[in-house]
Amino acid sequence: MNSTSEATDPPAPAPKPKKHISAQRRIITWIFIAILLVIVLFEWRAKTSQANTVKNLEAAMEQAGDVGEISFVDFQTIKEGSPSEDIDESGAILRKHHYRWNGVFKTYDLRILVNDDEMVITFDTLADGEPVGGINRISKKKMEALIQKEKNESGIKPVKAEPAETEPAEKKPVEAEPAETKSN
Predict the structure, then answer these.
(1) Counting Cβ atoms within 10 Å, is residue 43 exposed (0-12), middle (13-18) or buried (19+)?
(2) What is the CA radius of gyration of the chain?
(3) pTM
């Protein structure tokens, strides 16, 4: 027996055939995915190189103890990746090295100060600014001006190297002066 409910049910829709994706569209999709992966890899490499360098530098400076300085040669072995380097030697005592790891979307920075003894004394990860790690540098020009100002305030006059003026003894006759006599 047929029930009326079965007769009134609409027939099930026929399954739609799958769309055929062209080979060109698949190639373009895979090229786009590959480009995105390269960009992400490039950015990740820049970020991790900078982060690992900072982490290793912090560990080396902590290991140095109370001194808190490491040699610049040791820093060169700690540095990871291939950052660009700018050197600013305008400081009177401290030289600033600015390292940049360039990603696609962001630049990752590390600035270090190196003293005359080739020791790294401080660092930070800021992009710009004069104080590095809280230490302001004095430029060579400012240092010379400060020294000159101190000399002027203290009254010390610069000594000029001039030859002494002396005449030979032969040209200057020595006159004998009569001795004074006391009269009583």
Answers:
(1) middle
(2) 40
(3) 0.64
The C-alpha atoms of residue 94 and residue 121 are separated, in whole angstroms, by 9
pLDDT digits (tens, 9 = 90+) for 113-144: 998 888 898 888 888 877 777 777 776 777 77
Q: Which amino acid is at 83?
A: P
Say if residues 69 and 122 touch (Cβ distance below 8 Å).
no
Cα–Cα distance between 57 and 68 in angstroms, integer? 11
Contacts of 34 (CB under 8 A, 6+ apart): none
